[in-house]
Amino acid sequence: QEDIFKNVISHAKEYGYIFPSSEIYDGLSAVYDYGQNGAELKKNIRDYWWKAMVQMHENIVGIDASIFMHPTTWKASGHVDAFNDPLIDNKDSKKRYRADVLIEDYAEKLNIKAQKEIEKAKKRFGEAFNEEEFVTTNPRVVGYLSKRAEILKRMGHSLETENLADVKALIEELEIADPDTGSKSWTEVRQFNLMFGTKLGAEAAHAMDLYLRPETAQGIFVNFSNVQKTGRMKIPFGIAQTGKAFRNEIVARQFIFRMREFEQMEMQFFVRPGEEMKWYEYWKETRLKWHMSLGLDKENYRFHDHDKLAHYANAAADIEFNFPFGFKELEGIHSRTDFDLKAHEEHSGKKLQFFDTELNQNYVPYVVETSIGLDRMFLAVFSSSLKEETLEDGSVRTVLSLPAVLAPTKAAVLPLVKKDGLPEVAREIIEDLKWDFNVAYDEKDAVGRRYRRQDALGTPFCITVDHQTLEDKTVTIRHRDSMKQDRVAIADLRNIINEEVSV
Ligand code: ATP
């Protein structure tokens, strides 16, 4: 698994998807830059989300709020006082970790052991295998899974009651070691505020202390009335937003999974008090369907319903994804009650209410939110698309089988040879297609090698111009995943590509 992850990171770099930030100065930990292909993939994921959430829902609109917000925002949201993460130092290495993440990693290892037993049994029993029965009766699997559940419950409870000594005791009891050095000597667990502080204004005496927003949601809450009134929105309705968020994360070991500067795609759905559970279930289903629509392997997803709830929530679930380092949170669906709007009413003295004409009543709406990390989604798509295939002739090809709708380049146009007027025809095809799709031109090396390069880049189609093209205006179109080639008319290319890449 470690090797697969390393492979993902090096492939992302080699093919212009992701670079370490400021690499010529040896990089900056947990900060990354998206390269020429990464920026396109990221934009396509964002657009795919925006289309599904905003364009397809008459009652959801999108905004773009600032990263800087009035500092009182973070008092109202609880980020200044309550939103702290438990932090622990290793005495030997002086390295710092998030205690809950260390424990979660340990619990995930138990889960992996259980999954391995299940896989083994599947192979052994074949058709006759009953997974449901196996996981409830096999003593090893039951042991692993119940220990995992017990650990997560104990950690959750201690964090909830702020009993940090218990979190430390759990780390010691489980004999968790420093993931980098193997040392087991830890300091006390402390609370740590993850927000980045900065100053607004040049004059030191009058400068205002600000924070970079640690989530995009608050920009939506403070604009609730602006949007509701100007958009004449009726409950239930949603406000969506994508944008950067910043957290001074302690553990930064998992590439773009946990970054200090990242991007969120969030939607806050405002509902009648009392109807929130209906909408919570609706959004859980709807968001899972969105993931499924991309056609990645279904087995990669699972729900994790939270036992431990944040102080503002009355229900919460994660959609977890099977990343190269195991199942981890990809998206959160939270029923946030009226906590945020009420808190902003209190701190601002302004009413944040809705007059419901059907009920003839004013109220502070309840909120159900869906919150997904764009970078985590990128990692999910990228890592599960990267494959090594052994072909019939025994050779191995690397293919990045990205969903066509998300691929940075939709087609590469390749003249078979660099002469006889073939490059000119290839250029004409590009001139025509580029109004609708990102298309690339490549004339270097033998055509087989060019196919492999486009496979590794994730380009769904290769269009080859050969001598027959000059006679009958046809080309071959090669499909990345099946490697199948069809002879088609140049005039049909747009439709053929469109069929695959449009939503
Ligand atoms: P975690 O427990 O993994 O730190 P979280 O529960 O704090 O995540 P939320 O506050 O619910 O996360 O944020 C919503 C989404 O934003 C997450 O599901 C995740 O996809 C993304 N996200 C959160 N923190 C980061 C980060 N440091 N880097 C990249 N994405 C992040």
What is the secondary structure topology, with strand pairs?
Blueprint: H1 2-14, E1 18-20, E2 32-34, H2 36-55, E3 60-62, H3 72-76, E4 84-90, E5 96-98, H4 99-125, H5 131-137, H6 139-160, H7 164-173, E6 186-193, E7 197-200, E8 208-211, H8 217-221, H9 224-230, E9 237-246, E10 261-271, H10 276-293, E11 301-305, E12 315-323, E13 326-337, H11 339-348, E14 354-356, E15 361-363, E16 366-373, H12 374-385, E17 386-390, E18 396-400, E19 411-415, H13 422-433, E20 439-441, H14 447-457, E21 461-465, H15 467-472, E22 474-479, E23 485-489, H16 493-501
Parallel strand pairs: 3-9, 19-20, 19-21
Antiparallel strand pairs: 1-2, 4-5, 4-6, 7-8, 9-10, 10-16, 11-12, 12-13, 13-16, 14-15, 17-18, 21-22, 22-23
Helix pairs in contact: 2-12, 4-6, 4-7, 6-7
Bound molecules: adenosine-5'-triphosphate (ATP).
Residues 215, 247, 249, 258-259, 262, 264, 329-332, 371-373, 375-376 line the site of adenosine-5'-triphosphate.
Oligomer: single chain
Tell how many strands the DSSP assignment holds. Answer: 23
Strand content: 25-35%
Query: What does the largest sheet look like?
Result: 7 strands, mixed
Question: Would you identify the CATH architecture of the largest domain?
Answer: 2-Layer Sandwich
Low-confidence stretches: none
How many helices in DSSP terms? 16
In the CATH scheme, the class of the largest domain would be Alpha Beta
How confident is the prediction overall: mean pLDDT?
93
CATH-defined fold name of the largest domain: BirA Bifunctional Protein, domain 2
Overall 3D form: globular
Percent helix, as a range, is 25-40%
What is the terminal-to-terminal distance? 33 Å
Q: Quickly count the domains.
A: 3
The CATH fourth-level homologous superfamily of the largest domain: Bira Bifunctional Protein, Domain 2
Which ligands appear in the coordinates? adenosine-5'-triphosphate
**Helix vs. strand class:** alpha+beta
Strand order of the largest sheet: 3-9-10-16-13-12-11
